[in-house]
């Protein structure tokens, strides 16, 4: 499994969500199933709304897990993905309980101090689990 930490230069939560939408669009266009894991239900609902209009010239077929777990882009929390070997975009502060079901994981990091600390801990936890996380500057 490939694990990457995409590092944003801002501290804005909105920039982090926009990056998640852009990455979901790119992965879906490449034919990969996508699971975007939110920190809570409110964030999943914000992402659901943002995916409708973050890019005027694009449509990203998506749905909340409880409505359609088979959607090309699924927004959820700790549910297992309906399709394995896809991309997990993790916006949750903790590691997914279903890591082994994904072929790729992207953690999106911004410069907010509390989130930076949590992401550093996640980086260490991935290493402990035997993965080789990579850092990608955005």
TrEMBL record:
Pfam families: DNA_pol3_chi. InterPro entries: DNA_pol3_chi, PolIII_chi_sf. GO terms for biological process: DNA replication; positive regulation of DNA-templated DNA replication initiation. GO terms for molecular function: DNA binding; DNA-directed DNA polymerase activity. PANTHER family: DNA POLYMERASE III SUBUNIT CHI. This is DNA polymerase III subunit chi. It comes from Aquipseudomonas guryensis.
